[in-house]
Hints:
Layout: E1 13-17, H1 19-24, E2 36-40, H2 41-49, H3 56-72, E3 81-82, E4 90-94, H4 104-108, H5 113-127, E5 132-136, H6 140-148, E6 152-154, E7 171-174, H7 179-188, E8 190-192, E9 203-209, E10 212-219, E11 224-227, H8 241-251, E12 257-262, H9 268-278, E13 285-290, H10 307-327, H11 333-344, E14 348-352, E15 364-368, H12 376-384, E16 391-396, H13 412-420, E17 426-431, H14 438-446
Parallel strand pairs: 1-2, 1-5, 2-4, 5-6, 7-9, 12-16, 12-17, 13-14, 13-15, 15-16
Antiparallel strand pairs: 3-4, 8-11, 9-10, 10-11
Helix pairs in contact: 2-5, 8-9, 9-10, 12-13
Amino acid sequence: MTTKKIKPNSQKKLFVLDTSVLLYDHIAIHQFKEHDVAIPVQVLEELDNLKNGNENRNFEARAFIKLIDRISKDKLINDWIPFPNGEPGRFKIVVHEKVGKIDAETILGSEKIDHKILNTALYLQQEANYSKVTLVSKDTCLRIKAKALGLLAEDYETGKIKNAEDLYTGITSLKDVDAEFINEIKLEKIVPNAPINWPQQNHFYFIKKNRSTTPVFYNLKKNETELVEKNKIFNISPRNLEQQAAMHALLNPAIKLVTLQGNAGTGKTLLALACALEQRKNFRQIYVTRPIVPLSNQDIGYLPGDVKSKIDPYMSPIWDNLKFIKEQFSKDSDMSLKIDSWVSQEKITITPLAFIRGRTLGKIFFIVDEAQNLTPHEIKTIISRAGEDTKIVFTGDIYQIDTPYLDAESNGLSYLIENAKSHPLYAHITLHKGERSELANLANELL
């Protein structure tokens, strides 16, 4: 069967997607509205090489290949075909090896597939009848090369927030609050309604009066203001008001989704783990996990030893936090033994995120550490797996990203904070004050 050629329209724009975009979001081809989308055949080859494995990029590669198979059905896709279900725009796999007036491989070298992708985009720019041809890539260096060769290039914007500097913090400091309300909240602990017009979201307020500060939490669902008290949780005491607020959200059974964002040493993972242990009887299991970001982007398979010895270096920060909690019970040998038994019985499971895939997250206290290394799509996938009575906590630092093609504005943690902030099941706290040591604080503040 042959496909009738559909000539591109000069009013349309053409977007050429590279591999990094599809590994970030496998449905990216549907995000360009009425315009046309071209995929160089070399991208398919790269995706084919990445389709095996348990990392997120492997899942995205497989998902895109299956998506293209569904779209094409009995059609040929080396020429323009409309998207199914009446979607505007058209799609094509570009398979030719033609070179335009500018040859990226001659200029930049032929050893990289990226340069073949550049050549495809350059040829389309020269030959196709479009108002604009743009290479879309998450690879900053590839975008710079494209622009140097006279080709428009841009980042993939879907899933990006506008400005990480203005990201929602979850906390507001107030000064002009009636002293009568402050006295009432301290006495009653919970006050219906609010003294001023709180925004329509769960939110923490640090009310300053004279030299004292009273932390409160506005509960959107109940339309109540709650006093945020300082409590020792599993022998861990909050060292500042931000940590106090974080504990309040982590211990609140009505809050099913919590994000903690902040610099290293602010106590994010430790607080989440301590609060999980405090509530252990309310949950079937405690999962503590983090995405593995292989060194130099190599798969962990090259590391020596069995699976446990391969992944333990990546999980060591979580084990360090559990060890710190155990040390708080140095005079209580029974509790220390209990914690060890919970680990051996898998009541507490510490494992890479890839090993959690496919499991049922029912009645689980689920902590995802280093969530800034996840894509928005992966964050959505994790939350969508939550069963009844599950609580999910994401922790991370959006300025310490180890994953290629993610930044402070495009990572999944920033995306979640920005998009979930008005939901009654959600609370967020940005922690600024480091509590690791004075020397660690120096690094965060000065270097």
